[in-house]
Amino acid sequence: MQNTYKIKKSFLIPYIATIVLLFLLFLLSLFTGQTWEKIILAILFVSSLAVGVEASRREIIVTEDGLKIKRFFREKAFVWMEITHLAVVVMRNKAYFLLTTTKGFYIFSNLLEKHILLIRFLLDRLGEEKVEVEIKNYLNNPVERISLIVMSWVALIVIIAIIVVKLMPA
Predict the structure, then answer these.
(1) Which parts of 53-152 are beta strand (E)?
(2) Looking at the whole model, is its pTM more than 0.70?
(3) What confidence tier does 126 reach under pLDDT thresholds 50, 70, 90?
(4) How many distinct structural domains can be found in the chain?
(5) Domain range spanning residue 26?
């Protein structure tokens, strides 16, 4: 048995489209933009690209033997005995899960696809003594992180509007 949990596609799709359109906007500014515009768009594109690559490569893989956390250029693997504690902090519609291990601690959020299944599996696998009571409360009343998804769609629409305005004849 192996389950993989990645960042939600409902966030990644508009975010990656935003990155592509930011690059297109940067290319347009090379021909018609001012120097400050080129610099700002280059910085926005490069920083957005870095975040996009990191988000698209981030995943948690659960197997019978343990847990693997993959990030861009980094991978950590744990056997179940190395995991010592699981906690959660909920702030409005954001939930951050803290996984403490003998190798350090790791944080993941409710922006993962099917994160409820992951948390339920961790609760069952780790047992009551390693999991805080707040995890059970969270499972009874889970929250979805929709605001970040909405913001990525809004950013996409704004960039499309800027490109349209930029392409209109003066």
Answers:
(1) 59-63, 66-71, 74-79, 83-91, 94-101, 104-109
(2) yes
(3) confident
(4) 1
(5) 2-167
